[in-house]
Specification:
This protein is an alpha/beta fold. The protein has one domain: Purple Acid Phosphatase, chain A, domain 2, CATH 3.60.21. Helices cover about 35% and strands about 20% of the residues. It is built from nine helices and twelve strands. A six-stranded mixed beta sheet has the order 1-6-7-8-10-9, with helices on one face. Strands 5-4-3-2-11-12 form a six-stranded mixed beta sheet. A hairpin with a 2-residue loop joins strand 9 and strand 10. Helix 1 packs parallel to helix 2. The radius of gyration is 18 Å and the shape is globular. The termini are far apart.
């Protein structure tokens, strides 16, 4: 058992605290790519809405279905150019933070600087009007999936990343496509429990951060969970994923943090499809 956290306990040195007052919108797992035009259109509309209604926008990872290096923006890719322009437009109006997920962990400050955004530190402790909130992509909490966690440690190693980024773009794309196919085959045989976050990992993260609220994406299981950590009532909010091209009904949404608390907001277009199907 872990010892209870006390007021004198020190937070891990890797925990980055950000003061973000006002209304915060957090989206994740959009998986933009050349084969998702409807998802991109819905996401771009969301960005325009966020620029007018939110004080800060955070993209908490896997905004892109794959990211093989920032130099990809030098190649003519219309779908990417359109999305980067939409991100750049929103960043001119409100602060934009871009996080890295398990698909786009190679995003670097070079890209965020190019679009006028800031790179979200990992993990981040947000000081908000709703209290302190721990924010992460979420894959780091899926500790029951030992094979994935080994893979995650390897691809996050700076030496491995340098070697990968030294390859030509075509070779990097081939490797990324192979890894994606391998992951999809492997996931078919994994249980729902292995694919989800591990309760003990979530409890440890909340214990170490001192926060009573965790927000994350990755699992594609948007929900609000309550749990007890060392006698404290804690909450876990899972950010909705996006798919307007292949899912029926379509999916999309975000988490809003404000003085009123935390809530999940469904994308209006996905809500309309759900109502029409009833």
């Amino acid at each position: 058992m872990f010892p209870p956290k006390t007021s004198s306990s020190r937070k891990p040195p890797s925990l980055n605290k950000l003061a973000l007052p006002g209304r915060i919108w957090i989206a994740s797992d959009v998986h933009l790519g050349p084969d998702s035009p409807a998802t991109a259109a819905a996401f771009h509309a969301f960005l325009e809405q966020a620029a007018g209604q939110a004080d800060t926008l955070i993209l908490a990872g896997d905004i892109f279905d794959a990211w093989i290096g920032d130099d990809v923006i030098r190649q003519p890719r219309p779908w990417l150019e359109t999305s980067l322009h939409a991100l750049q437009t929103v960043a001119k109006r409100i602060p934009l933070w871009v996080g890295r997920g398990n698909r786009d962990f190679l995003i670097s400050p070079h890209l965020t600087h190019a679009i006028g955004a800031r790179l979200l530190p990992e993990p981040a402790l947000l000081a908000t009007d709703a209290g302190e909130i721990l924010l992460a992509h979420g894959d780091e909490y899926c500790t029951a999936d030992a094979r994935y966690q080994r893979f995650r440690r390897i691809v996050r190693h700076p030496g491995v990343q340098r070697a990968y980024l030294s390859l030509p773009l075509r070779a990097r794309q081939s490797i990324a496509d192979w890894a994606r196919r391998r992951s999809m085959r492997s996931n078919r045989y994994k249980s729902a429990e292995i694919m989800d976050v591990t309760p003990q990992a979530v409890e440890q993260a909340l214990r170490e951060s001192g926060s009573a609220t965790l927000i994350h994406g990755h699992t594609h299981r948007p929900a609000h969970h309550t749990l007890q950590v060392d006698g404290r009532r804690c909450e876990r909010w899972v950010i909705p994923d996006w798919d307007f091209d292949h899912a029926t009904p379509s999916r999309g949404g975000w988490v809003e943090v404000s003085v009123r608390g935390v809530q999940i907001v469904r994308h209006p277009a996905s809500q309309a499809q759900v109502q029409a199907s009833k």
